[in-house]
C-alpha cells in the first residue's frame, strides 16, 4: 500500500537484508520511496528486494561490506546511476561482536556463556578483550557509518536538494550496560558522529539524526532472553514489558526521513520501550 510520504525519493539503507534495516526498506517503499538495499549477505538482501517489489515497490540490491571505503563509494554511485538521487540514508549495518553473522545461531550457546562469565567476573572480561574483537566492531559500526554518510553526502551536497540521514546508534550509546564494551563504544561514537555531521551538513540542508533503539526482536537479540536477568528486565522492569519490533523502529525512521521532522537535526530518538526512564 503506497501512502506517499516519500514519493519520488530514493533511500539507501545499509544492513537492509535483515531486521531493522529490512523494516526500514519496506516502510519507506510503502511510502513511495525507491530503495537501495545494501548488505553483506546477498541472499538476505535479495529477499528484502523481493518483499519490496512484490508490494509493487522499486528496489535494488547492492552487496556491501560497510567497513570498506570503496564499497560505500560504489554503493552511492550505483544509487545515483539507477535512481538519479539520494534523498534518505539509513546506516543500519551493524554487528554486536566481531564474529557476529546475522541469522547464524551456531555461536549462541558460547555467547550466553560469555555473557554469564562477564557478569560474574567483569575485570576478567575486560582483560580478555582483544584488539581483533574491538577493531572489527569499530570498523563496521562506527567507521562504516562514517563511510556511508560521507559517500552519500558527496552526492547530496552537490545535488543541492538537502536530504535526511539517519544513523543507527543504540541505548548502548549512553548506557554501557546495554551491550559489550566495543559495541557500546562504537554506538557512543555513532551518536557523537551524528551530532558533528548534523552541524557540518546542516548549512547544505541535510539533516542528520540518530535512532537509539532499545531491545528489538531481530537476529541480533535472539539470544538475549537466555541471559539471566535479561528476561526479567523485559517482563518486570521495562515500562512496556516487551522487546520492540523492527517495524516500530522503521516508523521512527520514517518520521526522521520525512518532512514531519523538517526542523529536527542532531537528535537521537530512543524507541526503547521506556528503557531510559529508570
Ligand atoms: N536489535 C536491537 O535490539 C538493536 C538495538 C539497538 C541498535 N541496533 C542496531 O540496529 C542495527 C541493525 O541491527 P538488527 O538488530 O536489525 O540486526 P540484524 O542482524 O537483523 O541486521 C543487521 C544487518 O546488517 C548486516 N551487516 C552486518 N555487518 C555488515 C557489514 N560489514 N556490511 C554490510 N552489512 C552488514 C547484516 O548482514 C544484517 O543484514 C545495528 O546497527 C544494531 O547495532 C539493534
General description of the model:
The chain is of the alpha/beta class and 278 residues long. It has a single domain (10-277), classed as Rossmann fold. The chain has nine helices and seven strands, in the order E-H-E-H-E-H-E-H-H-H-E-H-E-H-H-E. The protein has helices spanning 19-30, 42-54, 69-83, 108-120, 122-128, 131-159, 181-201, 230-237, 246-257; strands spanning 10-14, 34-39, 58-63, 88-91, 163-168, 206-211, 268-269. A seven-stranded parallel β-sheet has the order 3-2-1-4-5-6-7, with helices on both faces. Helix 1 runs parallel beside helix 2 (42-54) and helix 1 packs across helix 9 (246-257). Bound molecules: nicotinamide-adenine-dinucleotide (NAD).
How would a textbook summarize the main sheet?
7 strands, parallel
Cofactors, ions, other ligands:
nicotinamide-adenine-dinucleotide
What gross morphology would you assign? Answer: globular
CATH class: Alpha Beta
H/E order of the elements? EHEHEHEHHHEHEHHE
Relevant CATH superfamily: NAD(P)-binding Rossmann-like Domain
Helix content: 40-55%
CATH topology name, in short, is Rossmann fold
Give the mean pLDDT: 96
Largest beta sheet: strand ordering? 3-2-1-4-5-6-7
Give a short overview.
Helix content is 47%, strand content 13%. The chain contains nine helices and seven strands. Strand 5 (163-168), helix 7 and strand 6 (206-211) form a beta-alpha-beta unit.
Write the topology of this structure.
Layout: E1 10-14, H1 19-30, E2 34-39, H2 42-54, E3 58-63, H3 69-83, E4 88-91, H4 108-120, H5 122-128, H6 131-159, E5 163-168, H7 181-201, E6 206-211, H8 230-237, H9 246-257, E7 268-269
Parallel strand pairs: 1-2, 1-4, 2-3, 4-5, 5-6, 6-7
Helix pairs in contact: 1-2, 1-9, 3-6, 4-5, 6-7
The structure holds nicotinamide-adenine-dinucleotide.
